[in-house]
Amino acid sequence: MRKYRNVISASRRCDLVAHYPDYLCQSLSKLEPEDIHTIVLWTKNPLNILTNDQLNRELGRFDNIYLLLTLTGLGGSILEPNVPNLDDMFKMLPALVERLKTAEHIAIRYDPLIHIINPEKTYEVSNITEKTAIEILENMRSNRISRFITSIAQDYKKAELRLKKHGLRFHDHYKQEAEEFIRDGLSKMTWERNILLSCCVSPNLTNRGCIDSQILKSIHPLQLPASRSKDRSQREYCNCIKSYDIGQWYSCPHGCLYCYGNPAPAFSLAEADKRGEDY
Questions:
Q1: What pLDDT does residue 271 have?
Q2: CB 113 within 8 A of CB 182
Q3: Cβ–Cβ < 8 Å for 181, 153
Q4: CB 109 within 8 A of CB 83
Q5: What is the SS3 assignment for 207?
Q6: Contact yes or no for 45/16 (Cβ under 8 A)
């Protein structure tokens, strides 16, 4: 007999909620609710959670839903050209809290912290700013959302090449800048608002994973414990517990230039099925 129920991740690989709801529904339909502790949803645009009836029917079969909602403050910029802006996202928060029943079922991911410039240093895009952070934190507080996750952008080779095509590059000292911002800025801003700060995959700052066993237990209607086994498939400093990702490396129309995935136009479910795991 299995000691713990499975945690399902949907998905780190591409934004299933925003761009592949049919695939997500199909995948969820194959799961047995009694085997599942939590469905963890990752998205930069949660509109389908509010408007897609089929998705909500499938999600409604499971005891516990945890939404990891990414708000970077960069939506609509050259770095996230097809992501909704903050104002549009903030408008959805009250309805999301109502749909998921409590604010504890939502965490905000201010992720990644990033600073981009052009070679001439005459143009820059950055979300390592107090103004953006406070705007997000204040909207969290007004909606009773109490968990704030952040991390620092990784300079993946594929991301560097994408940026270069747009005449951009990572700022020379962005990682140090972001670490100082977390340590000297975000830690105080979150503490003042009674919001839990979690730092993801940063060797000097990491404390809890995005998928955290203690939090999943606390929001489960039966208070069922979740496994504390570390997810060995993630990066070295990731503190997430083990989960099963039901996503695939499909193209993502958000088009984020810094992404480790495949920012590109979406395709139909039929096309997705043909491409499979090898895409």
A1: 55
A2: yes
A3: no
A4: no
A5: coil
A6: no
Phi, psi for 22 (deg, rounded to 5):
-65, -45
d(CA 10, CA 24): 8
Q: Is 18 helix (H, G, I), strand (E, B) or coil?
A: helix
**What is the distance between the alpha carbons of residues 137 and 93, in angstroms, rounded to a whole number?**
12
Instruction: Quote the CA–CA distance of 66 and 39 in Å, as a whole number.
Output: 6
Phi, then psi, of 195 in degrees rounded to 5: -115, 135
Give the predicted TM-score (pTM) of the model: 0.93
Around Cβ 234, how many Cβ atoms within 10 Å?
20
**Which of the two residues, 230 and 114, has the higher pLDDT score?**
114
| C-alpha distances out from residue 269 to 9, 41, 50, 202, Å | 19, 19, 21, 36
Q: Exposed/middle/buried for 44, CB within 10 Å: 0-12, 13-18, 19+?
A: buried
Residue 42 bridge partners (DSSP): 68
Q: Which fold has domain 6-278?
A: pyruvate-formate lyase- activating enzyme (3.80.30)
Nearest to residue 50, comparing CAs of 37, 67, 62? 67
Residue 163 host element (H or E):
helix 157-165
Tokens 């995948």 belong to which residue? Answer: 27
Element housing 174 (H / E): helix 174-181
Measured between alpha carbons, how far is residue 81 from residues 77, 133, 211, 237, 258 in Å? 5, 20, 27, 29, 12
Question: To which residue do tokens 């095509």 refer?
Answer: 165
Contact 128, 115 (CB under 8 A): yes
Binning the chain into helix, strand and coil, the percentages to the nearest 5 are 35, 20, 45
Q: What pLDDT is stored for residue 15 in this prediction?
A: 97
Average pLDDT over residues 11-33: 97
When mean pLDDT is compared across 6-15, 140-149, 175-184, 223-232, the lowest value belongs to 223-232
Q: Which amino acid is at 142?
A: S
Asked if 254 contacts 47 with a C-beta cutoff of 8 angstroms, the reply is no
